[in-house]
Amino acid sequence: MNQEELQVAAFEIILHSGSARTTVHEAFADMREEHYDEAAEKLEAANAELLEAHHAQTNLLQEYASGTEIKIEIIMVHAQDHLMTTMTLREVALEMLSLYRKVEK
Predict the structure, then answer these.
(1) What SS3 class is residue 71?
(2) For the modification Phosphohistidine, which residues carry it (predicted)?
């Protein structure tokens, strides 16, 4: 895998995880306004974006597993960090949504 292909994959991960992160923050805003169904929809949309980022990551792992040499650059480290923190943020948002709904009852 050449440097350009690796950078494209990294930016794809950053793009999708960044979109997901924005959507999770929109879901937090909906929760604060007691719009729980809208928040849940946004968290599902964020998950779809995260799946796209994860597909890019999985493709890299498959390349590596098949013997392709992949030289890790700082942009890939950044992309992985972006993806993992956004995945964690979404998990926290799901828990918060559950708690918000529980308090409403």
Answers:
(1) coil
(2) 78
